[in-house]
Structure formats: structure tokens, C-alpha cells
Amino acid sequence: MAKEKSLFVCSECGGTSPKWLGKCPSCGAWNTLIEQVAGSSGPANNRFGTQYAALAGVSELATLSEIEATDVARTPTGLDELDRVLGGGIVSGGVTLIGGDPGIGKSTLLLQAVDALQRAGQNALYVTGEESGAQVSLRSRRLGLDHSQVQVLAEIQLEKIIATLDATRPAIAVIDSIQTVYSDQLTSAPGSVAQVRECAAHLTRFAKTSGTAVVLVGHVTKEGALAGPRVLEHMVDTVLYFEGDTHSSFRLVRAIKNRFGAVNEIGVFAMTERGLKGVTNPSAIFLSQHAEPVPGSVVLVTLEGTRPMLVEIQALVDNGGPSPRRLSVGLDRDRLAMLLAVLHRHAGVACMDQDVFVNAVGGVRISEPAADLAVMLAITSSLRGKPLPRGFIAFGEVGLAGEVRPAPRGQERLREAAKLGFSVAVVPKANAPRKGTKEIEGLTIHAVERIEEAMDVVRRLD
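Predicted structure:
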């Protein structure tokens, strides 16, 4: 009996090698090559080549200006926070990939969404490959989804799943999860790079031809990235990440990619005994309640997608040893080191022999540079031991030359702060309301151009 030929496939990028190597020749990752049986390359197995050959010459060219452009119709899921992240609701024929840590609440959220769609008159199908139908039914009862009419299919074979989808034609189908699905056309095991890529391609093709909205649940790696080939994110229309601290009851759903809406939108949920509930005022989560103002605390108005949120930045400066520590939670550590250098050079505030700790309250991660000014003011407040006045906010990017640069959509940030009762703001000069425009009621705005000016304003406010 002839020995089957094998090749080695990278689990990170999908690249192949005829022999095992410690380092992938395509992406450079270490210890990611996995042995698989090589399929025949004959014409009988060239599934895609024959399809493309048959389609060659059929399509007609069209002028871009002559193509009719209409807004895509959306169907609300019944969960306002999820609709915000999706851009208004699910799109017919759209493919969404959602990833997150095990036990974070992906299946709970999607089960609530498909039940709400079913009750709104949309035919919904939930395909479970990790649990039995009885386990899904038990979860629905725990969530209070009594008499749910959602159809459940416990299956992991791709061909059977697509046949069921083609026969029932649901409005939305959830595949939980894509790593458990396998195709008979491949010899590799479920969860391998080839299986994940092939199954996702077939499900995406079915969604586009049938109009069924497909939601794929993906596993994540230790680093928090979606497991499997990166090409999976390029094949789908929307990529969502489910984030949250296991010690907290709050969860964030973040849009990384969205062909039908804005990216970097977030939805905030609270995990309760009855499932995930949307949080309409997330700023209340990320603000600590102090009876009196404390040193080292500054409120930042950050922007997540189109939503301005208030987050408390806390700093603690303490006596350090010969090698002082620089530690940040929720903020970039390298940027913290840069801000300390700017603070010393341009504002005369030295922390060379001090330990500096910076934290964003509530477990939120802040990636935008508009947090620079708030971080520097919090560090200065802690070092001097003097709290900033009650109702104080700040935002703005700080450059290496000490200039304070504007933040995007500054007027929306200021209006959100005024709505929540804040009264004093230190902002970049370019973000201050222009002359002749309506002033923001109840908010005293101090516009600054350099970090030295911001420090002088804070000293006068003490």
C-alpha cells in the first residue's frame, strides 16, 4: 500500500512546507507547523478552478457612477447595545465573526439575540457544535427565554449544516463554533487551518447567495487574538471581539471591522442572572465615587467609535529605588515613559527617582493619544499631593515638543461631560468652542496650547 503524502501547514498563517521546520517560512512564527495529509492535485479535486472557468467571460463591466447605490436594510436584534456595534442591526447576507475568551458570554449573547429575532417574526437557526441541544435548552431556561421557538441543530459536518440551511432558509444562522465544523472534502481534523478556512468560505458563499445572515463564533488564542488563519477575518463582513474581566460583571463588545457600519464602536453589557443586559450609561462604570477629591485622579473624556465615555485615570507616584518602576494598566506603557520625559523637559516636573503607577478605572483599555493630557495631570497631582477640583475633566494629545494637540470630535466630548455635571475642562485650544458658536452651558473651558500652560491653569485652580 502506497504511503500517503503529507505536508506541514502553519496554524497561524496557513502557509505550507514539504517538511517540518521549527520556523514557518511564510510568517516567521515558531512551532506552528502541523502535519496534514496532502490531497490530490488532479483536476477532479480542483473544485474552484472549474467554477471559475465556467464563470469566465460571463460578468459585464459597469461604470462606477452608473451603479445604483442604496443603503442596506437592517433588522434590529432587540439588543440595543449589539445593534450599536453592528451599525443598526443584522444585514441580509452579512457574515459576522465574534470571538472572545471561553465563558465570556458569546453563546449567551447570541442565544438572546436569535430569540429576540425569532419573537420579532424572523426565522432563526442555532447550530451548536460544542454542546448538545439539551444543554442549549437548559441555558435558554436559565436566561428566562420561556417557550422559545428558535430552531436548534446539533451538528458539526459542514455538508449537513449547509443542506439544512438550504432547506430551511432562516433569516439568521449562528454557527457555534467554526472551529468544531469539518468538511468531508478535507482529511485534516476539525479546528485545523485548512478546515476552518474551507468551512468559513463555504458558509460565506452560502450567505451571499441565499441572503441568510450568518454569525460565526471563533475561539481565541492565549494572546486574545482569533484562533486560526488571519484570512478568516478578511473573508467576513464584520469582526467583533467580546472583552471583559473575569472578576467584573461588565462585558464590552468591540467592532474591529465592519463593512456596513463604523469600526471601533463598542457595546457595554452587564452579566446578570438573566443573561446580558445593555448598559445605557457606561460612563458610570468607569468613574469611582469619591466623597472628596483625591490626589492623582483625573477624569478623561475618551471616544470609542461614535460614543464619548468618561473614564477615570488614576496615578500614584511614590518614592522609588535606584531603578524606579513604570507600570500602567489599561494604557500603553511605552507612551507613559514618553509622557514622563515630556513632563520633565517642558514642565519641569521630575519623576526620575519615583515609582509611577497609572490605571484606567473599570478595566477599560484606552488606545487613543487623547488620554495624554489627563495622564500627565494625574501624575502631577499625585506628585504634589494636591487633588484637582471637583467636576474637573481633561483630554488632549501631547507631542514631544510639549504642544497640546486637538482630539477628534472635541465638541461631542465637552457636551457629554456637561451633560453628566462636570464644570471645569482643560482642553486643546483647537477643541474650544469658536467665537460666535453656542457655549456649552455649565462648563468652564480652559484652552491651552502647551503643557506648561495646562500646568499653570491647574495650579491656579487649586
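Summary: The first strand starts at residue 6 and ends at 10.
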